[in-house]
Amino acid sequence: MNKTDLVNNISEKNGLAKKDVEAVLNGFLGEITEALAKGDKVQLIGFGTFETRKRSGRTGRNPQTGETINIAESTVPAFKAGNKLKEAVN
Predict the structure, then answer these.
(1) How far apart are CA 58 and CA 65, in angstroms?
(2) What is the CATH number of the domain that holds 57?
(3) Are residues 29 and 7 in contact, defined by beta-carbon separation less than 8 angstroms?
(4) Do both 17 and 56 map to the same domain?
(5) CB neighbour list of residue 80: distance below 8 Å, 6 or more residues apart
(6) Same domain (yes/no): 46, 88
(7) Are residue 31 and residue 47 in the same domain, yes or no?
(8) Rounded distance between C-alpha atoms, residue 90 and residue 34, angstroms
């Protein structure tokens, strides 16, 4: 399912305009993105937690040349599913 499918499904199930659903979804995703960029955690009880994690620097290898390269430390987004989501999937 992609974003368009999600907007269409929510619109049909709730009788809302697709334009309104898309605006709310974009706002929701924007707020999560802003919170993660600030280093905050977003916890939705029963669904899951969005957070950032540090990925330490390491040594890698260029597959084409075999040359050793240094990969810098980075911060990456992560999602941990909540119990209700895990139960629904299983």
Answers:
(1) 18
(2) 4.10.520.10
(3) no
(4) no
(5) 48, 49, 51
(6) yes
(7) no
(8) 31
- Cα separation, 87 vs 26, in Å, equals 27
Strands (E) in the chain, as ranges, are 42-44, 48-55, 58-61, 68-71, 74-81
Instruction: Give me the number of domains the chain comprises.
Output: 2
Per-residue pLDDT of 3-62, as tens digits, reads: 999 999 999 999 999 999 999 999 999 999 999 999 999 999 999 999 999 999 999 999
Indicate the pTM of the whole model. 0.80
12's tokens:
């049909």
On whether the CB atoms of residues 77 and 52 are closer than 8 A, the answer is: yes
Per-residue b or e along 9-25, where b marks 16 or more CB atoms closer than 10 Å to that residue's CB: ebbeeeeeeeeebbeee
Nearest to 53 by CA among 22, 29, 83, 76: 76
Amino acid 68 reads T
